[in-house]
Every structure is written in C-alpha cells, then in structure tokens.
Design a protein that fits this description.
By secondary structure, the chain is α+β, with helices and mostly antiparallel strands. Helix content is 13%, strand content 23%. Strands 3-4-6-5-7-2-1-8 form an eight-stranded antiparallel β-sheet.
C-alpha cells in the first residue's frame, strides 16, 4: 500500500497491484523509498478527469534519473480512483509521473499502465487544487510504503469517533 500525505491535510491510501504491472509498482516503491515524491506538487489537475504528479520540476516535462519503463498495459479499467502512469507519446516512456482518475475514463484502458487503486482518501484527491499548473498547488508532503512502517512526519488527526477520552482511559475494566 502506498500512502500519500497531502498538503491539504489529508491522506490517500493506494493499493498497489503488482499482478497488473510489476515493473511499475517496483519503480513507484523504489522512488517512494528514496523520498523522490516528498514535496512534489500535483502539476496538472483537470476537473472531471484526473490529478497528475511525480515531476520534480513541476512542469510536466521532468522525471526521475532512472530509465523509462516498458509499458505494462493491462485490461483493468480506469475507474474512479484508478492510479496510472503518465507517459509521453511513446508507449514505453513512463518514468515517475502518475495520475489519479476522478471519474471513469475507459478511453485510457490498455493505453496507460494502471498499477493501483485508491482505497481510502478519495475525498483528499477530490480536494486537490485544479489547474495546469494550479495557482496554489497541492503537494505530496510525504509518500511512504505502508509495509515499511516508516515514521510519519505528518498524519491526519484522528476522527472524533476514533479519539480516546480521559474517561475511556480511567474506565474500570470489565470482564
């Protein structure tokens, strides 16, 4: 699972799907573990379509220093919350940029490598600032792989129903 803590104060949890795109999932995990995505903006956010990130220059033309990836197109549909690799005109030009789909876009199927789905925090994705680039872009404060148990620099405050009160701590233990 990929966790994205955003500058809008919310967290997005993405289930990575190595069965769909093993090379792309490995690339994302490698870059996340290097801290590559920390501080990067969502530079292309189109209402009704998608939010794109992963370019350290913020222009849409940058990527990592790693070589581009060979396409791993698969039959999984581009539904709301799908996470797919961005690329240039060449099928084999994906590198570090990815996008999250706001609404189904079946025209992208088998043309972009679908490698995961948002399983929590789609409300955070919906609140990403729109624009190409946005005037006040939303940033990835920290990206992490959940299985690594990396200490979080940022975590959303617990929801009211999850908060523990002092009364709960002092309550007698019943058997």
């Amino acid at each position: 699972m990929l966790l994205l803590d955003l500058s809008n104060g919310k967290r997005v949890a993405i289930r990575l799907m190595p069965d769909w795109a093993p090379g792309h999932v490995e690339r994302i995990k490698l870059l996340v573990r290097q801290g590559f995505y920390d501080g990067i903006i969502f530079h292309r956010v189109i209402e009704g379509f998608m939010a794109q990130t992963g370019d350290p220059t913020g222009t849409g033309r940058g990527g990592s220093e790693l070589p581009d990836l060979k396409a791993e197109f698969n039959p999984m549909p581009h539904l709301r919350g799908t996470v797919s690799m961005a690329r240039a005109a060449s099928d084999d030009s994906a590198n570090s940029q990815f996008f999250i789909v706001f609404y189904p876009r079946f025209s992208l199927d088998k043309k972009y490598t679908n490698f995961g789905r948002v399983i929590s925090g789609m409300d955070a994705v919906d609140e990403i600032q729109r624009g190409e680039p946005p005037a006040n872009p939303t940033r990835i404060v920290q990206a992490s792989v959940a299985a690594d148990n990396k200490p979080q620099r940022f975590a959303p405050a617990p929801k009211a129903e999850e908060a523990i009160s002092l009364d709960d701590l002092n309550a007698p233990i019943s058997q």
